């Protein structure tokens, strides 16, 4: 048995970039920052605060919600799975990317007045947005 589960609570680094595939499926990408507080060891050594940046990928309904309601600086709770891939850049160098494919998202920032105060909560978000996102290349499993 194995598990690929990621849970993050952090701040959005920039507004989501959303694109639509030819089939009309929305895909949103944006960075999320998580920060570990600094501390002082018993011997007086100071360990500074450390920020990690995570590349988030949201599909379908979650991507559409992110497009409308998620903004730079917002606090988010996300659950998903980690995926890594590589590609060759324009110079022919191999590059590696690690991404978090988000299955569930909760917006934790105070509702803002830019959207008339109507950001969806877990109760009002469309049901499809809270279901695990299926990527276009993922086959549906039959229950038998």
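Sequence proposed for the structure above (144 residues):
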């Amino acid at each position: 048995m194995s598990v690929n589960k990621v849970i993050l609570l952090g701040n959005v680094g920039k507004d989501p970039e959303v694109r639509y595939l030819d089939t009309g499926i929305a895909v949103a990408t944006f960075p999320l920052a998580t920060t570990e507080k600094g501390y002082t060891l018993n011997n007086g050594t100071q360990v500074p605060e450390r920020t990690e940046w995570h590349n988030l990928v949201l599909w379908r309904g979650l991507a559409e919600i992110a497009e409308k309601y998620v903004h730079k600086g917002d606090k988010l709770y996300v659950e998903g799975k980690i995926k890594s891939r590589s590609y060759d850049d324009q110079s022919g160098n191999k590059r590696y990317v690690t991404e978090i494919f988000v299955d569930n998202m909760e917006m934790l920032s105070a509702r803002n007045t830019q959207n008339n105060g109507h950001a969806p909560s877990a109760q009002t978000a469309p049901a499809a947005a809270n279901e695990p996102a299926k990527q276009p290349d993922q086959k549906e499993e039959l229950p038998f």
